[in-house]
């Protein structure tokens, strides 16, 4: 769980750095963009591989600690186990910009196009875990190290912003980014961008959109 | 190429390093334009050039002190300062082009003037630095202040003569090599033929002739047809010191490719590929980005090359491609801190490295204004600090030690108290003597070995 949060935090951080690097003098640095996208890809792989523990109630404002050794351990464990392709995913209510830059560089494996199948599992909204919105495969190989607790994951049936608050100078932007990110992680290329969901405030939507456009232009621009 | 070994020049620990000079502002408030971005000695070591983020080049000259003493150590004083590059704007891409000097490379001296190449992200310039210590006086048609005389007032003729004047050092741009790089230039390297040089950006390497500015040859192009398939970029490139047909370039994946220009016009196919398999026990979340090579330097002999990645320095024998012959850990204690270093962007720092004149010692920088030297013969290493606290001339520098974990001994510094804003990215070693130039953020330190 904590690994998942950490992975998400790093992804958010990477997106922020990518956005920020676009604004720097001298223009976008190709090497830096590449390195950021590599980290983001690793984080996303980690995130996708980690199991969601839905019956562990989400604790808001969980302190996000750097947990490198644990990440390391987890990565090893994950390298050992097979990453089973997810067999279901809920339709994402959030608009999907499928053109985002980092996805362009990833291997197709983790985000292979999937037929949108309705999950056969009953979703328990009371145990929704906002941090895993729209993502989780219901049947996953277990990771070792006691990081997750047993039973198959449950998928929340509606989008919720992850309660884990990003720290830093721009908490609002970080929140937007995290929200954005939850949707972005729903790797369904078939999902066209739809109107923003009601739960997303319009002003918050706009900066994120431009951020995505920036990301799109960032790497593909050359 | 054999370099005369000086007494006591064997190793980082055999010699005692002393503070000599420090250049730059004293106050802690660092102006961004003053941040030093490159340091380079010329071929004789008499001149030391620095480039900064503001596009300026400052050249220091070693004073020729008492030449009778064989181990004289002259001071370096400012010789010339000039604005090499200005900020520019690319209107097509709506991008500002930074004036920061990325690299300076000296040409070997052929006549009284000195020549160097300086580059920013997009444009390389050849500068001529010449001295003027005489000026003509006694013109017939001009007054001394330059005003023209009325020709009707000229009644006698005289021959103008040269009279001594205060030394003036002039820098003038002789060639401007522009518009050849789409991406950001990271390296320039002068060929041993002294007629051509290469410039490398993230995806391409171009070959220039020093006399010709309107064209260059592309010799390496790793740009994929589809940019979405991009997996690595070029991080550094250098010509072999002796073979004019050979050069190497390093990549962000930790590989080095050696290319022979005789093989084909476009050297996309390497002659040799130097790569060390990754140690699986060290594999971590940030493995990929810390394996990126930030600098590659041939030894003076040309037999070896050195690469710097984020945590280590590796020496490669050009005859062995599958692994380096020596590996030195610069700051292994940072391996467990990579996540924090990613957050504060330090993980992207590009450290340089350099050889001493006899190729027996290598040096590179670290954080907290520490720099490290590794003696290849004795296998000993030393950590020193560039700090104004030790700024009395001939003060011997005390070796520093970082405590990675556990109990911190006296005089040791714990990892958590390292200042990651104080980084030494650029260092240079005099080609013949034990004099080193170490650049902190905005100061240039000169150290030399203890002269008895």
Give a quick summary of the entry.
Chain A is mainly α. Helix content of chain A is 41%, strand content 0%.
Shape of chain A: globular
Task: Report strand order across the widest sheet of chain B.
Answer: 1-32-31-30
- Helix count of chain A, per DSSP? 6
Q: Report the principal-axis shape of chain B.
A: globular
- What is the mean predicted local confidence, pLDDT of chain B? 92
Described by strand count, sense and barrel closure, the largest sheet of chain B is: 4 strands, antiparallel
Distance between the termini of chain B: 28 Å
User: What fraction, in percent, of the residue positions of chain A are helical?
Assistant: 40-55%
| Total number of domains of chain A | 1
Structural Rg of chain B: 24 Å
- The SS-based structural class of chain A is mainly alpha
Distance between the termini of chain A: 38 Å
What are the low-pLDDT stretches of chain B, counting only 5+ consecutive residues below 50? Answer: 1-12
User: Largest chain interface and its two residue counts?
Assistant: A-B, 30 and 38 residues
CATH topology of chain B: Methylamine Dehydrogenase, Chain H
- Number of beta-strand segments of chain B: 32
